[in-house]
Amino acid sequence: MDFTLSEEQLMIQQAAKDFAQNELLPEVIERDDAQKFPAEQVKSMGELGFLGMMVDEKYGGSGLDTLSYVLVMEELSKVDASASVVVSVNNSLVCWGLETFGSENQKQKYLTRLASGEIIGAFCLSEPEAGSDATSQKTTAIDKGDHYVINGTKNWITNGGTAEVYLVIAQTDVEKGHKGINALIVEKGMEGFEIGPKENKLGIRGSDTHSLLFNDVKVPKENRIGEDGFGFKFAMKTLAGGRIGIAAQALGIATGAYELAKKYSKERKAFGTEIANHQAIAFKLADMHTKIQAARHLVYQAACDKDNGNDYTLSGAMAKLYASEVAMETAVEAVQIHGGNGFVKDYHVERMMRDAKITQIYEGTSEIQKIVISRSILKD
Ligand code: COS
């Protein structure tokens, strides 16, 4: 296994690092406080090609590999996980899903604008009673010949208020179970489609999370992704890649928190010396560094599996499970190393600790990742 980065990958990594330092860092605390969506920054990320990184250039994307995407996610997440989740959802769940399974017409109509960052998208699977248990969809999409009629509610939808295009998973034929589920493209402004209240969240407070309400929303049949009944597989296949993006986000949060803790420990003095000289602190840093490096290998391995055409369901789930645990643990320890200052917003690590938690929950909780991993290792 060789994770030596190419010149192009190093350049992209540097571009993301510069962007994070110059454009995300300055008001990240204020945005978190005010729950302000980073609208200008998202526009700039579109211009940099970060919103359709793996999409073919002919559809307005950057035509890059998954490893480059992971590098960008990592750099952005070191500074602002609220901004990076927009990148993750748009790239992995929306653009990848449309490019891989959408019709040519859907790609021309939606993907080109999503990949260039002109608009952003949302992925709508979760419901009040169907988060982990994703086959239990209560939202219905009834077949009316040339169109579907959607009714129901979706919950915790990232980019919920800011997206223009929504990929909605809904049950068409309840008798067929998961084989009766469809994925439909819904546009903002379609009659009967309402954006619910914004969630007041513990972390990633700059990201725009809403419930969505569908009341007799008519969606043309040409907006169905794939064959009739493909919706659940669409969601599962898309989420398998999405988990690599979230794993990279977790890796970025962990690295960001570790770097701040390391710097602080070389400046802050206690008992007559920099605290890094106390073994209690040095050993914490040693553990953090080791675990982050292990997480990085898992995340890069999953990205390489995807790029090399290997199955990445298992490696993506392992990467997300481990990297999100490392993110949480590292952020908690970074607060501890900062002591009283760690509890204060100006030092960033308390935000990272709050942001880290969601990486163990969304796009499949840690418990769901263990289901995916255990089924995969036990099947043969
Ligand atoms: N790729 C392709 N197909 C997949 C798949 C994957 N990664 N995972 C499951 N499937 C297919 C199965 O092969 C099965 O199809 P067949 O009946 O044709 O064989 C079908 O999907 C149903 O799978 P399964 O029987 O395993 O469904 P379960 O209800 O047991 O649930 C889990 C499987 C738990 C893995 C799934 O519900 C899941 O991932 N839940 C979490 C969803 C999630 O991430 N929610 C967060 C919301 S998005 S922020």
Automatic annotation (TrEMBL):
Keywords: FAD, Flavoprotein, Oxidoreductase. InterPro entries: Acyl-CoA_DH_CS, Acyl-CoA_Oxase/DH_mid-dom, Acyl-CoA_Oxase/DH_mid-dom_sf, AcylCo_DH-like_C, AcylCo_DH/oxidase_C, AcylCoA_DH/ox_N, AcylCoA_DH/ox_N_sf, AcylCoA_DH/oxidase_NM_dom_sf. Residues 6-118 form the Acyl-CoA dehydrogenase/oxidase N-terminal domain. Residues 231-378 form the Acyl-CoA dehydrogenase/oxidase C-terminal domain. This is Cyclohex-1-ene-1-carbonyl-CoA dehydrogenase. Belongs to the acyl-CoA dehydrogenase family. Its cofactor is FAD. GO terms for molecular function: acyl-CoA dehydrogenase activity; flavin adenine dinucleotide binding. Its EC number is 1.3.8.10. Residues 122-217 form the Acyl-CoA oxidase/dehydrogenase middle domain.
